[in-house]
Amino acid sequence: MTKKEKKYSVKFRVWIEEGEERFLGMGRVMLLELIAKTGSITNAAKEMKMSYRQAWQFVEEMNKYAKEPLVEKILGGNKGGGARLTEAGEKAIKEFNKFENKVKEFVRKEFKKVKL
Amino acid sequence: MTKKEKKYSVKFRVWIEEGEERFLGMGRVMLLELIAKTGSITNAAKEMKMSYRQAWQFVEEMNKYAKEPLVEKILGGNKGGGARLTEAGEKAIKEFNKFENKVKEFVRKEFKKVKL
Q1: What pTM value is reported for the model?
Q2: Does any CB of chain B come closer than 8 Å to the CB of residue A67?
Q3: CATH number of the domain at A18-111, please?
Q4: In whole angstroms, what is the distance from residue A23 CA to residue A17 CA?
Q5: Where do the structural domains in chain B lie, given as residue ranges?
């Protein structure tokens, strides 16, 4: 039988749980990055086309499952308060991205050896 | 601030696409393994608590996106026909599992270095 020509690619997702609960993954790290960039959960949610309610829930969960909160609210200000990352939040982004990039590199390298 | 005690674990998923379509992942490989074990798509679907329709669709997609079909129907027989893996199907299981296990090993090893 003639083999069909195919164009394969590999995809992956990696995430961290605390107990059985999702703590940190690519989407949540992107949310943290956008909170740092925009200064508020509302604006970060908008950029991700996510509801404020969903973004807020992710932040609450991350703060709950982290050893120290990753996001803190800033009271006052002309928009009625924003949010910013704590030191732990900044570190979580760096650690997760470093880890994810290493996994990505490995997955791509190993996938070249897969005979399909 | 006192750090809360946490128990973190890492999870991952890896899958292969052809073009932009899902070709092979953990669930589909399990389906292939169960087809080999049970001799039919119907029984394999039952063991996975998946509808026959869904299992059939997965098999059709795998056959379509593989260079050669992975599953072939056996006509006749007292149950009106079963299914079995082709050589390409057996090989796809082995290659995917080998790849997935290497990724798992790497992910676990690297995760130990992540400071949360």
Answers
A1: 0.90
A2: yes
A3: 1.10.10.10
A4: 5
A5: 21-111
What residues contact residue B68 under an 8 Å CB cut-off, 6+ apart?
A1, A3, A4, B86, B88
- Angle, vertex CA B83, rays to CA B79 and CA B84, nearest 5: 135
> What ipTM does the predicted assembly reach?
0.90
- Reading chain B (116 residues) residue by residue, the pLDDT tens digits are 567 889 999 999 999 999 999 999 999 999 999 999 999 999 999 999 999 999 999 999 999 999 999 999 887 655 556 999 999 999 999 999 999 999 999 999 999 999 99
Q: Does domain B21-111 have CATH number 3.30.300.160?
A: no
Interatomic CA distance for residues B14 and B23, integer angstroms? 11
Name every chain A residue with its beta carbon within 8 A of the beta carbon of B106: 103, 106, 110
